[in-house]
Amino acid sequence: MASLADSFLADLDELSDNEGYPEEDNAEAAGMEEDGDDDMPDLESLNYDDLDSVSKLQKTQRYHDIMQKVEDALQKGTDFSNQGSILEEDPEYQLIVDCNALSVDIENEIIIIHNFIRDKYRLKFPELESLVHHPIDYARVVKKIGNEMDLTLVDLEGLLPSAIIMVVSVTASTTSGKPLSEENLEKTVEACDRALTLDAAKKKVLDFVESRMGYIAPNLSAIVGSAVASKLMGTAGGLGALAKMPACNVQLLGAKRKNLAGFSTATSQFRVGYLEQTEVFQSTPPALRTRACRLIAAKSTLAARIDSIRGDPTGKAGRNLLEEIRKKIEKWQEPPPAKLPKPLPVPDSEPKKKRGGRRLRKMKERYAQTDMMKLANRMQFGIPEESSLGDGLGEGYGMLGQAGSGKLRVSAGQSKLAAKVAKKFKEKSYGSSGATSGLTSSLAFTPVQGIELSNPQAQGNPLGGGTQSTYFSETGTF
């Protein structure tokens, strides 16, 4: 317990020592802010009257170092001598990653300066911020107008479209703003100059990145373009991180969640990031852009994986993937094939499913055309047929009543089936066998009388001799 108490006392002494030198802590914190990644500053601690307390990016050492390297690289040109080396160890690749991070910081800084300019210039021209939305255009217009109240004396040609210039001029004539003081005007113009300087630095960084993307990621640049490829790499954190990312996440890189102010999200636009800036996406019809975005994201991921292992420095694989994307989108836009009239099948072209056999032959005989139907369907030449109603009305009898008797008679011939049954019946023997045994019976089963007595020996000794032959003789008399 004593050692634990001693440690607590030592910690308290250290805390008291640190509290005694607050200036050193502030200096360390300021140094950390300068050396850090320049995140968004705390809004509560900002002094909105001082531009330097709001915008600190241009004073950091990291900003100056990266810009100096970019200028040197642009003057020196591209060095392709180390193409075979590992991409992650390439100094130009590391500079590109730093440039991508710096471009994001510059965008955030421009937004902060834009808010500062709006707060200051709102006293002079409050309606201008609703007419000119882009931060850089707003800064240029504010710098051009200054403290002038009559905009007819200010030439805004080239800064804004002619329609916007007309609206701004008309609105300025009825504005309720008052001229700014010299101090506020000076701060506003300084902020405009700083925003324009940051915008020029951002363009220089993007130009450098785009010029090197053909070497760093030739296949990815062939699909989405150098500018979009650099933004994708910067947001993902490098080419290696982009190659490891699934296509569904690549599709959302750079997408911003829109604040719909409580309205339904059913009609909101499909969330797309930097890929909506590609030429292929813009040339696709709106109805197919969702599918096209998924396709571009999938092929871009494949191209990034090829570039991460330096698989094809010439960029031919990326061009092939781009051609495949275009062919698929063109295929989607083709009209559906016209429906051709379906021709009737050839009659009796297919073999019948019923097979022949005894049962089928019996059924045919049973339902075969009778002789009466054959005669009714037949007519004798030159002789009118008889009919059920007379005078040729009603159902005709054909050759049925041609005998002249007025009776419809047909000499019925025995059918094959009936002849076969009769033959079978005759061949069947109803008497018992001639062998005599203890089981021999004198009873015989006949279809005429049923059970009748018979003499088993009568078949063995037929009537043929003696006086008995004349009793039932066919020729003899009784």
From TrEMBL:
Gene Ontology biological-process annotations: mRNA processing; RNA splicing
GO MF terms listed in the record are:
RNA binding
The residue stretches assigned to a coiled coil in this entry are none
Gene Ontology cellular-component terms for this entry are: spliceosomal complex
Write down the superkingdom of origin.
Eukaryota
InterPro entries, per the entry:
Nop_C (IPR042239), Nop_dom (IPR002687), Nop_dom_sf (IPR036070), NOSIC (IPR012976), Prp31 (IPR027105), Prp31_C (IPR019175)
Instruction: Read off the Pfam families from this record.
Output: Nop, Prp31_C
What residue spans carry the Pro residues bias annotation? Answer: 334-348
Can you say what this protein is called? Nop domain-containing protein
Species per Swiss-Prot/TrEMBL record = Urochloa decumbens
